[in-house]
Amino acid sequence: MNKSFQILVQSYRISIGIELIQFIENSLVYERSTDIDDVILNTLGGAIGVISIFCLIIL
């Protein structure tokens, strides 16, 4: 598995973890929202970060 794919998987896992924590907190104590859009956009942000780093390395 190459490094960029590992970074994308980790950003996805972290995003899912944060959303699960927010869901549990919303069920128990706080009024926080959970949304799949957050997971998608955070993973997309990880992909943009990987592309940015590759562009900086090439330059």
Explain what this protein looks like in three dimensions.
The chain is an all-alpha fold. The chain contains 2 helices and no strands. The protein has helices at 3-28, 36-58. Helix 1 runs antiparallel to helix 2. The longest helix has 26 residues, at 3-28. It is elongated and about 50 Å long. It starts with a helix and ends with a helix. Residues 7-54 form the VanZ-like domain. Pfam families: VanZ. This is VanZ family protein. It comes from Parageobacillus thermoglucosidasius (Geobacillus thermoglucosidasius). InterPro entries: Teicoplanin_resist-assoc (IPR053150), VanZ-like (IPR006976).
What keyword list fits this structure?
59 residues; mainly alpha
Summed up, what is this model?
Residues 7-54 form the VanZ-like domain. The chain is mostly helical and 59 residues long.
